[in-house]
């Protein structure tokens, strides 16, 4: 009996020692995190350039910061990423990977394995990306924690899981926007058979249409209104939260669901500028 009691006491002592050692290690890690958070900021720049073929696909995923894209009639993609963190340790908790060939450019941000407390209490790096791309590309963005802004894209555009405003100068072809926490402004020069899809948007939506766009519009689950500044858009409200509209002669579909905000149709900037220039010329 005495042996059993002694054995139980020894096991209890070992357990307490293990807990204390674990707690000491965790506190040491926590102190390490706090001390580094007080350190000077750390900054890193990434500059790369690549040659892309017309129609190449550009993918941006998991970036912890804003993305800005400028396009031009070129075959060169220029990538500039500025990374900042409170310490080198915080910088090392994330990494940015760039992969490229003639048909694809992929920029991916992701977390690096770290200690338990670091994952929950430690800060990590942010990265802001500025890209200069050929206009003839398709763009896919997912999991961006910041604004996503691009000028004209002569190709498909897809943005999903964006925590910030989304602004597309103009898109040609398929356009998809899902899970956006912010306002959206999209210029549509042309809509192909795949149409435009908007789903799970927490913000207002402005669709800037070219004068020759013909489409049919349908929205379900809208917590807001649908309004138009255009004479060739006819809106019909069938029931609460549901609208339909015909744009011009009708055609490819623009569908929306689960929208917490208003939807407005306006004239695209690509048509407003020539019209304004013509009006000025007429006055001379």
Low-confidence spans = 4-11, 16-40, 116-121, 273-281
Proportion in β-strands: over 45%
- Which structural class fits the helix and strand makeup? alpha/beta
Strand order of the largest sheet: 5-6-2-8-10-12-14-20-16-19-18
On the 0 to 100 scale, the average pLDDT is: 83
- What radius of gyration results from the CA coordinates? 26 Å
Run of helices and strands: HEEEEHEEHEEEEEEEEEEEEEEEH
Count of strand segments: 21
Distance between the termini: 111 Å
> Main sheet, how many strands, which sense, barrel?
11 strands, mixed
Can you offer a commentary on this structure?
With 284 residues, this protein is of the alpha/beta class. The protein has a domain at 156-284. It has helices at residues 2-37, 88-92, 116-121, 269-283; strands at residues 42-51, 56-61, 67-72, 76-85, 94-101, 104-111, 126-134, 137-144, 148-150, 157-162, 166-172, 175-180, 184-190, 196-201, 205-209, 215-222, 226-228, 233-239, 242-247, 252-259, 263-267. Strands 5-6-2-8-10-12-14-20-16-19-18 form an eleven-stranded mixed sheet. The chain starts with a helix and ends with a helix. The model is unreliable at 4-11, 16-40, 116-121 and 273-281 (pLDDT under 50).
């Amino acid at each position: 009996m005495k042996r059993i009691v002694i054995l139980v006491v020894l096991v209890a002592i070992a357990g307490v020692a293990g807990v204390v050692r674990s707690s000491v290690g965790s506190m040491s890690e926590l102190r390490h995190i706090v001390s580094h958070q007080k350190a000077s900021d750390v900054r890193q720049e990434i500059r790369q350039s690549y040659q892309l073929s017309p129609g190449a696909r550009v993918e941006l995923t998991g970036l912890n910061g804003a993305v800005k894209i400028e396009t031009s009639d070129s075959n060169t993609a220029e990538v500039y990423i500025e990374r900042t963190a409170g310490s080198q340790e915080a910088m090392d908790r994330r990494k940015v990977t760039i992969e490229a060939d003639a048909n694809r450019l992929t920029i991916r941000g992701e977390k690096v394995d770290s200690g338990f407390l670091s994952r929950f209490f430690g800060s990590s790096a942010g990265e802001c990306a500025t890209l200069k791309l050929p206009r003839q590309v398709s763009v896919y963005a997912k999991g961006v924690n910041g604004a996503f802004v691009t000028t004209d894209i002569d190709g498909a555009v897809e943005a999903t899981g964006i925590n910030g405003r989304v602004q597309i100068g103009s898109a040609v072809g398929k356009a998809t926007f899902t899970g956006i926490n912010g306002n959206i402004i999209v210029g549509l020069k042309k809509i192909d058979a795949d149409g435009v899809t908007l789903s799970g948007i927490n913000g207002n939506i402005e669709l800037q249409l070219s004068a020759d766009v013909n489409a049919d519009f349908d929205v379900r689950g809208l917590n807001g209104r649908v309004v138009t500044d255009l004479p060739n858009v006819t809106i019909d409200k069938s029931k609460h939260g549901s609208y339909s509209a015909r744009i011009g002669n009708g055609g490819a579909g623009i569908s929306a669901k689960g929208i917490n905000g208003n939807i407005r149709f306006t004239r695209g900037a690509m048509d407003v500028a020539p019209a304004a220039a013509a009006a000025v010329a007429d006055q001379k």
